[in-house]
TrEMBL record:
Residues 34-204 form the DUF7907 domain. InterPro entries: DUF7907. Residues 1-16 form the signal peptide. It comes from Apiospora phragmitis. Keywords: Signal. This is DUF7907 domain-containing protein. The keyword Signal applies.
């Protein structure tokens, strides 16, 4: 849905006439800029949605231990995030995606469990106290869509899973890494049963000033490209 393929259409006007070509102009949904954002789930294939639908739900964390949150999708307002890093760190994909929580406010960072990097393995995603994982940040130029990057080629997935801490089902957010097929020279995508492939798309939100005594800092909070209302975007309308 969010991939872009450039094409050129040639029209034959007459048998002896030269071909005229029409260049297709890239057309992408307009972005705004903000330091704060919510991460909105956008299904790669909307026909594969759950019942009830979770397309346009928001990334949030649920408590599973001291300083530990598991990543899930919430139907209502999710966590407020910001991208944190110096200009150099951000340029070289070494920034972090953080949220503030606790009393006093403390940074909580997104991280992907990559300890079991094997085919068909769901990789857990945490939003734990601390700086999270380096490189979990929004895609930047030359990418056309500022979606949240995975730490390796692959996709985020939303899964209908039992959360052991609560003994009930949640729509969890996980990562699946692609595997390389040496015979075709291509990466192969994996989406397990009870899961659907998603992108996490930033929706602009105000990043409020921190109260006195906070342990968080917004000194290196980036101004990022984001969308005013992700749910209202008609994605098939856009692209080159």
């Amino acid at each position: 849905m969010l991939s872009a393929v450039l094409s050129l259409n040639a029209l034959g006007l007459a048998a002896a006439a030269p071909l005229e070509s029409r260049q297709v102009v890239p057309h992408y949904p307009p972005t705004q800029q903000s330091k704060g954002f919510h991460l909105i789930a956008n299904l790669t294939d909307p026909s594969q949605d759950f019942t009830p639908p979770v397309n346009s739900w928001q990334l949030s964390g649920i408590h599973v231990g001291a300083g530990l949150n598991d990543a899930v999708l919430a139907a209502s307002k999710g966590q407020l995030f910001y991208q944190n890093g110096t200009a150099e760190q951000t340029r070289y994909n070494q920034a972090h995606t953080l949220s503030d929580g606790g009393t006093p406010l403390f940074p909580w960072g997104i991280a992907v469990d990559d300890q079991a990097d094997t085919e068909g393995v769901l990789h857990g995603i945490s939003i734990n106290a601390g700086s999270g994982q380096v490189g979990i940040q929004l895609a930047q130029f030359p990418e056309h869509y500022p979606i949240l990057r995975t730490p390796a080629p692959g996709t985020y997935v939303a899964c209908n899973q039992t959360e052991p801490y609560y003994h009930t089902n949640y729509i969890t957010v996980r990562a699946m890494f692609d595997t390389f097929d040496s015979t075709t020279g291509r990466y192969v995508r994996h989406v397990p049963e009870n899961c659907v492939a998603i992108t996490l798309v930033p929706q602009c939100a105000e990043l409020p000033a921190l109260p006195s005594g906070s342990m968080s800092s917004h000194e290196f909070a980036n101004t990022v490209n984001c969308y005013a209302d992700v749910a209202s975007i008609d994605w098939p309308e856009y692209g080159p």
